[in-house]
């Protein structure tokens, strides 16, 4: 009896490490991205240059950072269309604050505060008024972007006061050759991987996404958790916004336009299930990587960037179809 | 030994009388079948006992003490657990995580408190073994049979040493073999001295597992009798109203 009990407790549905890997959508997406990188290295002599790799990793870090927040929202059964607007709001807030003479850190706090407020409002309206996240965050997309326009008076900001150089170094600089945004993304990814697996909050995100009714009945504070989920999503957008300002060296109000779609694409390609309950941090990062590799390869191969949407769109559908086929086979 | 007693419990929703003057007792280790047509007030009664609704009038006593539940959590703390009709399980999570949902075990990890999966898997495995279910703690609920899912939902109620377990239609949507499994689970609860209130439409299930049968019709309790003193035909008559009412429990 005790032996079989031990066996039952230790039993795992997954087999060997390899078969476990092969069952993950993120594994195949990673293979696709890796193949892309290898073929680009062989076909072009521009891909594997230090300069290009630096650009690729930094670009993908911005999408990756927000995709981690988006994956959290999607795993909880929601969606956040307002991340692009949170990016520009955060960027404008830090830009306006710094150009008025405020230092970097207080300005950054203001920018993060603004983005957290966006998420807070999203979360409150979604959780307590029960309005669908799609509608709420669609409204917020318009609202936050409009606020950014009002705040900046639609002027470009390119002088950032006393801490000008610090801002540019943070967003555009590197440590030991690794771009700072990439470091931020890796740290965030490690922390959130841990949080997803080992904390109650992480488990509740997936419980709410899996069966919100069950989460409520078992006494989980579903509404409060939802508010924090949307705040986290906006927070990642706020962080990306600050880093993007530092990288670009200026703030324009079209920053982050349509970025929500790229971010959702990255999350979905990485295995986040729009029906809720599934998604991984690693998936978000790898999804973002694949999108950037596609984008970069088109540029390097001299194909019109107009084709970018066609490739990314195909990948979204292929990734989800792949997952669907795998799920169907798993049922037999 | 009396475990749960309802006295004159009623519930009104505006002008609608969902439940009217229901008095009922449940002894320790007793299985009471609650039957009635759709809209007879079964779910309302369960929701009152479980703390989802407060009764418009009447009182509830648990082992002689008055209960006034404002939230399901209050009822849970007093030892009343519910197995919901849809089982309230998260398909995307493991059996153990579902058993402990909302009550996760934690351990220290440096400065932070993290979920103690090892203890949760062990404890869940012990509960499944007690229920003699083949459910494995690490399996995803999505891949489980109806009977295994029931075992997960029932194991959840056992976490806190419950005194009363309310079960809402546990055998409504599962196969014949699994029904037998679930009825076995109910007998195990009874053997542990837990009182079970079983809501069901399925006459054979109620007759095979219940000590007593109570019938609700249009919010009123029309029968409360020992199982061996009645028959499916009589109960059907009571549910439909062909038989007016019967009280057949020794006081």
What's the number of helices of chain B? 8
Terminal Cα span of chain B: 13 Å
Q: Which percent bin holds the helix content of chain A?
A: over 70%
Total strands of chain B: 13
Q: CATH H level of chain B: which superfamily?
A: P-loop containing nucleotide triphosphate hydrolases
Number of domains of chain A: 1
Class from secondary-structure proportions of chain B:
alpha/beta
Widest sheet: strand ordering of chain B: 6-9-10-3-11-12-13
Q: Based on the structure, what is the oligomeric state of the protein chains? A: heterodimer
**% residues in beta strands of chain B:** 25-35%
Please give the largest β-sheet of chain B: 7 strands, mixed
Low-confidence stretches of chain B: none
Radius of gyration of chain B: 19 Å
Helix content of chain B: 25-40%
Q: Over all CA atoms, what is the radius of gyration of chain A?
A: 21 Å
Looking at CATH, which topology of chain B would you report?
Rossmann fold
CATH topology of chain A: ABC transporter involved in vitamin B12 uptake, BtuC
CATH class of chain A: Mainly Alpha
Low-confidence parts of chain A: none
Membrane topology (chain A): Multi-pass membrane protein
Keywords (chain A): Cell inner membrane, Cell membrane, Membrane, Transmembrane, Transmembrane helix, Transport
Transmembrane segments (chain A): 26-48, 60-79, 85-102, 109-128, 166-195, 229-249, 261-291, 298-322
Organism (chain A): Stappia albiluteola
């Amino acid at each position: 009896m005790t032996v079989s009990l031990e066996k039952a407790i230790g039993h795992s549905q997954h087999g060997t490490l390899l078969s476990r890997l092969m069952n993950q959508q993120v594994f195949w997406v990673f293979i696709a991205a890796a193949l892309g990188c290898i073929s680009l290295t062989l076909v072009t002599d521009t891909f594997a240059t230090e300069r290009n790799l630096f650009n690729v990793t930094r670009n993908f870090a911005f999408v990756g950072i927000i995709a981690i927040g988006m994956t959290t929202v999607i795993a909880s059964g929601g969606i956040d269309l307002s991340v692009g607007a949170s990016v520009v709001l955060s960027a404008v807030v830090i830009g306006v604050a710094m150009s008025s003479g405020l230092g970097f850190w207080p300005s950054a706090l203001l920018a993060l505060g603004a983005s957290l407020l966006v998420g807070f409002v999203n979360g409150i309206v979604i959780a307590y008024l029960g309005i669908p996240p799609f509608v709420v965050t669609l409204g917020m997309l318009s609202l936050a972007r409009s606020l950014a326009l009002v705040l900046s008076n639609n002027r470009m900001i390119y002088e950032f006061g006393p801490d000008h150089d610090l801002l540019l170094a943070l967003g555009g600089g590197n440590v030991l050759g690794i771009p700072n945004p990439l470091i931020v993304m890796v740290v965030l990814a490690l922390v959130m991987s841990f949080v997803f697996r080992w904390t109650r909050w992480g488990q509740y995100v997936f419980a709410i996404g899996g069966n919100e009714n069950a989460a409520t009945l078992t006494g989980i504070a579903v509404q409060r958790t939802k508010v924090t989920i949307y705040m986290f999503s906006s927070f990642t957008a706020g962080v990306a916004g600050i880093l993007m300002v530092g990288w670009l060296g200026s703030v324009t109000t079209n920053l982050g336009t349509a970025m929500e779609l790229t971010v959702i694409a990255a999350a979905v390609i990485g295995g986040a299930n729009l029906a809720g309950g599934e998604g991984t941090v690693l998936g978000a990062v790898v999804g973002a990587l694949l999108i950037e590799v596609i984008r970069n390869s088109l540029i390097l191969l001299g194909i019109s960037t107009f084709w970018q949407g066609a490739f990314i769109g195909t990948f979204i559908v292929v990734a989800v179809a792949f997952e669907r086929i795998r799920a169907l086979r798993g049922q037999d | 030994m009396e475990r749960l007693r309802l006295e004159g419990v009623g519930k009104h929703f505006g002008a609608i009388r969902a439940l009217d003057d229901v008095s009922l007792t449940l002894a320790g280790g007793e299985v009471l079948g609650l039957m009635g047509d759709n809209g007879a007030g079964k779910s309302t009664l369960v929701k009152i006992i479980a703390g989802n609704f407060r009764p418009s009038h009447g009182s509830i006593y648990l082992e002689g003490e008055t209960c006034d539940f404002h939230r399901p959590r209050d009822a849970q703390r007093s030892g009343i657990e519910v197995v919901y009709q849809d089982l309230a399980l998260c398909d995307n999570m493991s059996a153990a995580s579902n058993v402990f949902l909302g009550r996760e075990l934690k351990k220290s990890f440096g400065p932070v408190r993290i979920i103690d999966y090892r203890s949760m898997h062990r404890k869940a495995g012990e509960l499944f073994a007690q229920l003699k279910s083949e459910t494995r703690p690490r399996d995803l609920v999505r891949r489980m049979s109806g009977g295994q899912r029931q075992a997960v939902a029932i194991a959840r109620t056992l976490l806190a040493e419950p005194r009363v377990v309310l079960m809402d239609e546990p055998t409504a949507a599962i196969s014949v073999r699994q029904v037998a499994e679930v009825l076995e689970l109910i007998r195990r609860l009874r053997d542990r001295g837990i009182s079970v209130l079983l809501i069901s439409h399925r006459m054979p299930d109620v007759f095979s597992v219940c000590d007593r049968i109570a019938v609700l019709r249009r919010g009123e309790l029309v029968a409360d009798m020992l199982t061996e003193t009645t028959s499916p035909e009589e109960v059907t008559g009571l549910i439909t109203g062909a038989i007016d009412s019967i009280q057949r429990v020794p006081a």
